[in-house]
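Appendix C reproduces, verbatim, an entry submitted by the partner laboratory led by Prof. M.T., so that reviewers can inspect both the input and the predicted structure.
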Amino acid sequence: MMKLATFRIGGVHPPENKLSANEPIIRLPLPKQLVIPLSQNLGAAPKPVVKKGDEVKKGQLIARGEAFISANLHAPASGKIAKIDDAVDSSGYRRMAIFLDVTDDEWMEGIDSTDELIHQNLPSSEVIRERIKEAGIVGMGGAAFPTHVKMMIPEEKKAEVLLINGVECEPYLTSDHRLMLEKTQEIILGIRILMKAIDVKRALIGVENNKPDAINRLQQFCNADNGIEVHALKVKYPQGGEKQLIKALLGREVPSGKLPIEVGCVVSNVGTAFAVYEAVQKNRPLIERVVTVTGKKLTKPSNFLVRIGTPMSALIEAAGGMPVDTGKIVNGGPMMGKALPTTDIPITKGSSGVLLVDQSESRRSTPNTCIRCARCVTVCPMGLEPYLLARISKLSLVERAEKERIMDCIECGSCQYTCPSALPLLDYIRLGKQRTASYLRNRK
């Protein structure tokens, strides 16, 4: 049997708990009101182009991304703008959002509302990038980096290969898995569109070997003629990280502080590829996404197609309601997700899952003294020293943190997961990254 590829340094093997892997995608009914946060992308938030009292159609632009790194926002349904005010987001802070009272679900003119698969000739790379920009597409794997910016390759660089991330290594989450099974041809067309946008002839789809049905389904539509290959990867977390995926598929290492284009790669998520297909071939903006709602005590772990701005409480209710012994609600998966302060948090473009953790598993163990076992160093996929970074961060030594490459941390949580002393390593490192990033901005 052929040895499966993977990244070389570090990694852990948490229980997979893919409870909703066999649950088909279900469209969630629209709530009466959608709360659409302005800040849903990495970079600057878009500026509203609507005001209180305006009537809008589904798909209509409601906020324009004016900065270089920003993304447009569109109305997820037809209705009336109730107000533009602050609302609690997944970080727990109050930020500006557009409140939309829903009246109906009719698309605005010029948008293909059918489910028909469209194979029409692809436009030029410039038109593709412009449609992606207008549609407000961001990375659907969680980072939410504006996709049109990623497609703008610097003149001094050359893209050689497109890598498509279908790994979904985070425990519990299955939204990408179901999308690969149910929207296979659309994803492949989206990949072809992305290939044309960056002018490459080769694309590699990486999928972990715990999804054999998705691998087989994708292989049915990939061949040498379209330049798209499917690669089964060894199950290891965090294989879905950009740099880890590049190492696993191509054996290339992205230098510290650099982007994938430095080694000739552009990386995109399968969900992003599907959104690109809808934007370019159907003129649909990004107004909905697939979200996994899961948990060991949940009545019906599910995968929902959800409009942006839908409260997470609606998803939990549709999955059977919140179990009485729920101790924590996590936005995302157990490794990189963050606990939510309330279930009224709206779904955003970067929301991949809602995880309900019971009381017994939600309690943190009491931290003990570091025993210098170096397990955190062994599992770090970036070759860092998490115990040292955490201590430096605790002491606010930002110059030392920069020297020790704290900004290379991908916040995967492998160090904290494996620490026998239950030290909150990732918590301190995240704090240290924020302080170091602020220091670097001020220095520039």
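DSSP finds 14 helices and 17 strands in the chain. Additional entries are available on request from the coordinating office.
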